Amino acid sequence: MSSLVAYKLEHPICTITLDDGKVNCLSLQMLAGINAALDRAEKDRAAVVLTGRKGKFSAGFDLAALGKGGSDAIDMMINGFRLAERLLSFPMPVVVACPGHALAMGSFLLLSADYRIGVDGAYKIGANEVAIGLTMPRFGVEICRQRLAPAHFHRAVICAEIYSPAGAVQAGFLDQVILEDKLIAAARDKATALAGLNMPAHTATKLRARHEALQAVRKAIEADEADLRS
To answer: Tell me: the pLDDT tens digits for 15-24?
Structure first.
């Protein structure tokens, strides 16, 4: 397990905590750690609580690495996209406990979980790609399309609107906002309740309900990767 990612099993749930001591950039190392933790969750047949460090879920990709370009930057982006696709189709329930800011790829991970709980406070949530000079990747468009409220889709994707936690509930990035000191307990309670579902039925229904979205996301990732590697 990566030093950036902690895994704690308390059957029937596990808690995966991201902490790089800063803003939880989704570097290649961080992404590898998350995938290793998800491998353990699958092996343990545990519902997942995915969370971050105090005040920060994730600020998205490592911008310094993106600025350098090259194969590592491309691999980081594609691995991030594939992580979101993995969460969207994960066989066990996934609950995100968002302790603060979630931007760019961090917000896309919110859009890929089964249930998302945030905390009240002066936090920013949203897809800020256009605001920082990046054309939204095809993947980003599709991951937003499948979860955001129709009235907020263009505002979030094209206009790069950033939301407060309460606004993020209306937009579709979050399902619920609670007090900070209640976050982890609430997420664990939700994950425990979801773990009580019939898992074969949960998985099959998830894949059926998200069939078209998953097809669109996978096609978008393929197109993005082809562009990036050309």
So the answer is: 999 999 999 9
